[in-house]
Amino acid sequence: MRLKQLFVLITSLVLVLSASSVYADQKKTIVVPTDSDTKPFTYKENGKFKGYDIDVVKAIFKDSKRYKVTFKTVSFSSILTGVDAGRYQLAANDFNYNEERAEKYLFSEPISKSNYAIAAKKGTSFDSLEAVSGKSVEVYSGSNYAQILENWNEKHSDKKPIAIRYVANTVTLPQRLQNIENGKVDFLIYDAISLKTVIADQGLSLDVTDVEDKLGTYKDGLEYLLLPKDEEGETLQTYVNKRIKTLQENGTLSKLSQKHFGGDFSTTSDKQ
């Protein structure tokens, strides 16, 4: 009798473990591309993915019964083209909102809020785009910052244009900041959090000044995760937004912001 009971117990355990294994295999893998070069949002340390965006995505999918997540390092220009091609399901790389992106991609609820700032040589303070009229800058083609500068030049044809130099995505943020210190370019516009973090890490002699201009819309400075604009993207967006709301309410986003930014840059809404 005992032998029979033991047999039934072992058989039941095997079935449970097998079912768990099958269930795990049925989870949909969410591939998240990142350039791993936008510290403190996303970077690599000793071969491991680090940063605010990385930790937020991990928290979103923690204990999920439907999804499992994996990260992949790609060039910045390959992130959204990979989303277009269906290779990636969720993009995380300190993405801001703009109308051009909104036509092609779905946006999550915002996960942080920073502000635009300009880095320049020590003792130099540029607090507006008009102040950098005629000055040189390096940007990635297609980036939010490139669009801001291009729009300013177009709207202010009566002034000296900002000299926009498009650089390859392999030219890192630290390298572009080093080019300011070396006198190769005059300034760099970026989010204040990243500029201050990298300048401190690299020991560069540069000043960072907040931009006083209102650039774009009320969504300026907000950071989002991007998803493909299709049925699967909409389903994932619903899940992601629900989890972001939970992380906002339980204080997780605030804690992660304190950890990576040294302050609370989390946000609760992108509504006016």
Automatic annotation (TrEMBL):
KW Signal (keyword) present: yes
SUPFAM superfamilies: Periplasmic binding protein-like II
SMART domains: PBPb
Alphabetical keyword list: Signal
Lineage: superkingdom: Bacteria
All copies of domain Solute-binding protein family 3/N-terminal, residue ranges: 29-264
PANTHER family, alphabetized: AMINO-ACID-BINDING PROTEIN YXEM-RELATED, MEMBRANE-BOUND LYTIC MUREIN TRANSGLYCOSYLASE F
Protein's name in the database: Amino acid ABC transporter substrate-binding protein
